[in-house]
Amino acid sequence: MATKTIKKVRDADATRARILAGAKKEFAKNGLGGGRVDEIALRAKANKRMIYHYFGSKEDLFRTVLEEVYTDIRAAERALELEHLPAREALEKLIRFTWDYYLKNPEFITLVNSENLHKARHLKKSEKIEKLFKRFVSMVGGLLDRGVQEGVFRPGIDPVQLNITIAALGYYYLTNRYTGSIVFQRDLMAPQALEERLAFNIETIMRLVCVDP
């Protein structure tokens, strides 16, 4: 009996994971409005009944996908173990990580864009998101405080403003890469252009934060 119960739980977890993976791809491609439950079911090798059983509705499934992508990036940030590094080195590592994460996970940006179109109505219902960001802001705040103690960072920098700026430097560049490549007449996604942009991002943040950039 116990073995059967364990198998059912594992099967349920596997099905739920497939549905989330399929929903992530579908919503990233077509947004909430254009995303189709039939297509998600096809991607997940599940049926629509199972989707509604596990997630209740398409809206709730979208909210869960958002929670998952935010959980993933926050978990990856914690894995950097920035608290064990000198503050300046830790900040540069966070800047590099954010840039690389956006490049390797383009669906994160498209999903965030989609939720902004809906004025964050799904995230407003999520207690999970609030907890995730409290921990993240605390982590960045601790990094800044450590830098002040080490004599390398200016005091009084708001960790929320800093995070917004780090994110914005990469976010805007990548979300506007197609129009930007035409307007500025350069391939913004060429390897050298990406390296130059990362170097610019690091220099910009360091000049903002450091006592002696």
TrEMBL record:
Residues 36-55 bind DNA. It holds the Pfam family TetR_C_29. The keyword DNA-binding applies. Residues 13-73 form the HTH tetR-type domain. InterPro entries: HTH-type_TetR-like_transc_reg, HTH_TetR, NicS_C. The keyword DNA-binding applies. Keywords: DNA-binding. PANTHER family: HTH-TYPE TRANSCRIPTIONAL REPRESSOR SCO4008, TRANSCRIPTIONAL REPRESSOR. This is TetR family transcriptional regulator.
